[in-house]
Amino acid sequence: MTRTLLAATLLALGLAQPALALEGTLDRSHTQAEFVVLHMQLDKVHGQIPLQSGTATLGPDNLPTALTAVFDVAAVTSQNDRRDQDLRDNYFEVAQFPTITFVERSIKGTPDAFSLTGDLTIHGVTKSVVLAGKIDGVATINGKKHVAFTGTTTIDRRDYGMTLVKFIDNQLFVGYPVTINFEAGVAER
Amino acid sequence: MLRAFVAAVAVLLAAAPASATDFTLDKAHTQAEFAVTHLGLGRVRGQLPLISGTLTTGANGLPTAAQATFDVTTLETYDDNRNRSLREKYFEATTYPTVTFVERKIAGTPANFALTGDLTIHGITKSVTLNGKIDGVQTIRGKQNIAYSATTSIDRRDFGITFGPMLDNQLIAGYDVAIDLEATAIEK
User: Is residue A4 one of the residues assigned to a domain?
Assistant: First the structure.
């Protein structure tokens, strides 16, 4: 009787649960958002925005079917203290808008080339963006599955209300198009 | 007499290499980035800030005598434990606090050049060739500014960085290292 009940329970669990979905946490030491923007129409400035927290559900092909990530803009760094201060105070206005968030809405494609559509919130403004991404690698570490992703998109910072304009010698100090490179490591919970 | 003297000076000045210009590398816009595979999984990137650097250019803006020193002790990967491990166990930054590059020759055009030089990492000097291009040229506050980018890849074991702990049979930090250099030079 006990054995039958156990078998029935296992069967029920096996059927009720989506067979291969995996719940994961974004790994803070292997997840970041990098932005790249043109300075003086001359050289590129890179800045890194660390992850605050994030989760992902992965389907059978390891593609994320649900992904949420929050990045800590107050900790943005571009390897230059004065520039970091300027970015925080005058561009991101971190006192008012301390985070950047991404929430997945849909995904299509394959592990080698997928389009991840989601709501990106920067500077308090939410817009739908499409990231072009791929899975960089899959490994089992200490018995837990790990999946590494990269995804990239380009925005115009003015669409997010970041409209500060400054010219030096007739050149735009900080360009409007911004490339965003996401790298994410998901670890099985 | 005076006129002849002025003429002679003018000839002498003209004899100096007409288009050579000396530049200083801008610390705020120069860095060396490395990217290495972690556990055969994703990439880990790190930035080495510039300590100092100079270059001389010819007429087309290509560097004819570039040298740069980068600071390993402030290497940054946005993770304190990882920074410490890289500085202490891989780069051994106490003994080898800098990475240096000294140009030996250059070939090609502003859109695509091959820059060969001596790269010293971890106390070992090897000749490497960077593939580069000029990203932009601007006159800012009366001074010429030139932005360059260049890449190469090395095997870290060639520079004696052989530390290679494994986790679940995977190398924690891969041996192949991609180096991306971005540099902005400002006219002196």
Answer: no
Structural domain harbouring A73: 19-188
Q: How far apart are CA A28 and CA B77, in angstroms?
A: 12
Percentage of chain A surpassing pLDDT 90? 86
Asked whether residue A158 is assigned to any structural domain, the reply reads yes
Q: Which parts of chain A register pLDDT below 70?
A: 1-19
Rounding to the nearest 10 degrees, give the CA dihedral for residues B182, B69, B52, B54: -70
Number of structural domains (chain A) is: 1
DSSP assignment letter at A189: -
> Is the complex ipTM higher than 0.85?
no
pLDDT tens for A135-157 read 999 999 989 999 999 999 999 99
pLDDT tens per residue, range B106-159:
999 999 999 999 999 999 999 999 999 999 999 999 999 999 999 999 999 999
**Residues in Cβ contact with B125 at an 8 Å cutoff, skipping those fewer than 6 apart:** B118, B119
Residue B95 DSSP SS3: coil
Taken in order A35, A39, A44, A45, is the CA torsion positive or negative?
negative
What's the CATH number where A73 sits?
2.40.128.110
The percentage of chain B sitting over the pLDDT mark of 90, rounded to a whole number, equals 82
CB B28 within 8 A of CB B49: no
Residues of chain A contacting B181 with CB distance shorter than 8 Å: none
Q: Is residue A8 part of a domain?
A: no
Locate A80 and state its tokens: 């230059």
pTM for this prediction: 0.86
Distance in angstroms (rounded) separating the CA atoms of residues A113 and A21: 20
Interface residue ranges in chain B relative to chain A, Cβ cutoff 8 Å: 27-29, 31, 37-44, 47, 49, 76, 78-79, 81-82, 135-141, 145, 147, 149, 167-168, 170, 182, 184
Domain membership of residue A6 (yes or no) is no
